[in-house]
Amino acid sequence: MPGLVALAIAMGIGRFAFTPLLPIMQADAGLGVAEGGWLASANYVGYLVGALLALRLDLPASRVVRGGLALVAVVTAAMALTHSFAAWMVLRFAAGVASAWVLVFVSSWGFARPEVVFAGVGTGIAVTGLACLLLMVNSATSGTAWIALGAIAAVGTVGIWHAFGTRPAAAGASVPNGFAWTPEAWRLTACYGIFGFGYIIPATFLPAMAKQVIDDPVKFGWSWPLFGAAALASTLAAGSLRKRFGDRRTWIAAHIVMAIGVAVPLAVPGLAGILASALLVGGTFMVATMAGVQEARRVAGTGARTLIAAMTSAFAVGQIAGPLVVGLFHSLSLSLLLAASLLLVSAFFLRRTP
User: Fold this and answer.
1) What does pTM read for this prediction?
2) Cβ-based burial of 269 (10 A; exposed 0-12, middle 13-18, buried ≥19)
3) TM segments (predicted)?
4) pLDDT tier at 171, thresholds 50, 70, 90
């Protein structure tokens, strides 16, 4: 449970709180799609920087997890204290750094059931989405929403504070030797980077897309909680899928279904297409994550850590590029079409096995 709560705070709030808050900020802060893309990318750049820094942090895991969770709570609430776009960029960057620290060190803590721990990502997204839905229904401002989410993060952090001080993290394995960059390793890295690009556009803009077709928060506000619920359920089911079909086939299937989910708002008008997208993309992004990491371990053997680190970096770059492309195109439709096409291309190339 402590690991689940930690990832719910770090990912559901530190990484993804901005998504359900975007429609509110568009309404009361005049934020446009391009500005939203820049704020999202600042958070993803912070995540990349945080992940790289985590590899070199020579601190006890308990201190890093606690510090990261506390930082998420502080910088989330601080979003309400300023109307400066530059300050918002810095705060979202800091939240990305902190969320990466928590994810990396919680992942190495040695919990017995990792699928339950990683279900925290979907749990956090669902809880954050429901909180924002409740706030929208009551006509809360974006400032109030940021303070409320910061308070939720603070309460959760206090609740699990002692759990991350009672036992040390599992000892990390030494960096493996003998890894060689093969065409297969490059292929996996490229496809994982495309995965990051493909899922992040709907993961960033789904609630804003829903608000464009229906202005009733009671209806459009359900898109993000639905995304989180699908992520939660699929994470718990991913283990049995991988055992039955294998990691490579599971990963390919996840990309195909995700591509359909990314493109479905273009083909199915109205809220139905957006909710279908939330289910299909939310229900595959954690499955693709788990299957991709396991496939890297199979391909790289003793050099798996190097390949997984490279894939994670490519994923982060893809996440950064997604919102920037939306800002450059000034069109969600073109961006979604590009993302869906790249996901299908990556699924095709994943079919080639060594």
Assistant:
1) 0.78
2) exposed
3) 36-55, 67-87, 93-111, 116-137, 143-164, 185-210, 222-239, 251-268, 274-294, 306-326, 332-350
4) very low
